[in-house]
Amino acid sequence: MGKIILARHGQDEDNARGILNGRRDMPLTSLGVSQAYELADKLKLSKLDIEYVFSSPYQRAEKTAKICSSFLDVPHVVLECLVERNHGILEGHPYSDIPRLAKAFREVHGMTYVLEVEGGEGYPELYERATNALVEIREKILELNIKRDVLIVSHGAIGRTMEAVHKGLGHERMFELTSPKNCEFRILE
């Protein structure tokens, strides 16, 4: 098995407006489409040997993944386990509402992270889901007999949490990792 490369989707409409989207299924902006092509180009020019692209079913991630898979001329598979964190009652609200609506939040690396919110997925649950997602990804790699690298296009919270799981950081320490920017990729080694 090769490397797993985690990438966040391109900018979507909620990102552009400073809205917390979570499970909202918003399309890419024109900038997000451009970012996806830039990501595909960077990956093609890299020394990575991508054989497959996996993605979340949300259109912002799926469109980014389809651009990459087409550009790299490799298959694309959608995995439900890659959906973004559920932000509960905060979904659809501006980031500025986090202090008012979240039961608990934390500011790190210039970002405000929701620790607890009504109807939302907490970090312990997200960490468990990310652990299970990595197991499912590895099982899919074996099932498809993938020998080279795999690009995973997902979202900020689930992607950062999978990175934390891979590095052996518990959910309490995952804030040591910065949130990925749109179409930023990170290699799990």
How are the elements arranged and paired?
Blueprint: E1 4-8, H1 13-17, H2 30-45, E2 50-55, H3 59-72, E3 76-78, H4 98-101, E4 104-108, E5 111-116, H5 123-143, E6 149-154, H6 156-166, E7 185-188
Parallel strand pairs: 1-6, 2-3, 2-6
Antiparallel strand pairs: 1-7, 4-5
Write a structural description.
With 189 residues, this protein is an alpha/beta fold. It has a single domain, classed as Rossmann fold. It has six helices and seven strands. The strands form two sheets. It has a five-stranded mixed β-sheet with strand order 3-2-6-1-7, sandwiched between helices. Helix 3 links the parallel strand 2 (50-55) and strand 3. Helix 2 (30-45) runs parallel beside helix 3 (59-72) and helix 5 (123-143) crosses helix 6. It is globular and about 45 Å long. The model has no long low-confidence stretch (mean pLDDT 96).
